[in-house]
Design a protein that fits this description.
- The complex is a heterodimer of chains A (109) and B (115).
- Chain A is an all-beta fold and 109 residues long.
- Helices cover 0% and strands 59% of the residues of chain A.
- In chain A, the strands form two sheets. In chain A, strands 2, 4, 5, 9, 10 and 11 form a six-stranded mixed sheet that branches.
- In chain A, β6 and β7 form a beta hairpin.
- In chain A, 36% of the residues are buried.
- In chain B, 0% of the residues lie in helices and 54% in strands.
- Chain B is built from no helices and eleven strands.
- Chain B starts with a strand and ends with a strand.
- The chains are: A mainly beta (109), B mainly beta (115).
- Chains A and B meet through β5 and β10 of A and β4, β5 and β10 of B.
């Protein structure tokens, strides 16, 4: 069963704009991770935030975590056409990593 | 390191045939995971191993599916007999010994089509 649910399901923006993607989950977690998947490829890890952290940055990525609301957001700043991909949030509880269905991001040049 | 290696990348077979998917995890990773990805159901965890021992196979759809990890550098996922509804992309992923903190490293997947 899916633990994380991403929102929106699809997002289309212009190059240079910021992209915000949201994820909600249902149960307690150890950490929350965001992954990226290019068409026809495997998933690639982007960033991890632990349950005791509220915000984390990595390059153009900013992720927040609100454990009281069981939600997370991923912000990609100054988007590029190369950011076009599917993005997944994944929640870690014990040893299992459970993925949402993903968000399709299209960045128009 | 070459990353997680999966084979075959593409497999087309007929209903009733046996399918074997293979995975070589990253050296030093003690955890290995098998996921299945479809449009309808997204990414589903099928089974995972720790130190070659299956820990949780609750995601395996039915008895037609089996997975083994005979050593630290090789795992197989077998479907026998295969059915059209098994058509999906199957991913193998591995992680460092502390899976509670670390990320998963995915292979490029095996796309299975059962006719």
């Amino acid at each position: 069963s899916q633990q994380g649910e991403e929102d929106p399901q699809a997002l289309s923006i212009q190059e240079g704009e910021n992209a915000t993607m949201n994820c909600s989950y249902k149960t307690s977690i150890n950490n929350l991770q965001w992954y990226r998947q290019n068409s026809g490829r495997g998933l690639v890890h982007l960033i991890l935030i632990r349950s005791n952290e509220r915000e984390k940055h990595s390059g153009r990525l900013r992720v927040t975590l609100d454990t009281s609301k069981k939600s997370s957001s991923l912000l990609i700043t100054a988007s590029r056409a190369a950011d076009t991909a599917s993005y997944f949030c994944a929640t870690r509880a014990n040893s299992k990593l459970t993925f949402g269905k993903g968000i399709t991001l299209s960045v128009r040049p | 390191d070459a990353g997680v290696i999966q084979s075959p990348r593409h497999e087309v077979t007929e209903m009733g045939q046996e399918v074997t998917l293979r995975c070589k995890p990253i050296s030093g990773h003690d955890y290995l995971f098998w996921y299945r990805q479809t449009m309808m159901r997204g990414l589903e965890l099928l089974i995972y191993f720790n130190n070659n021992v299956p820990i949780d196979d609750s995601g395996m759809p039915e008895d037609r599916f089996s997975a083994k990890m005979p050593n630290a550098s090789f795992s197989t996922l077998k479907i026998q007999p295969s059915e059209p509804r098994d058509s999906a992309v199957y991913f193998c992923a591995s992680s460092f010994p502390n899976p509670n903190t670390g990320e998963l490293f995915f292979g490029e997947g095996s796309r299975l089509t059962v006719l």
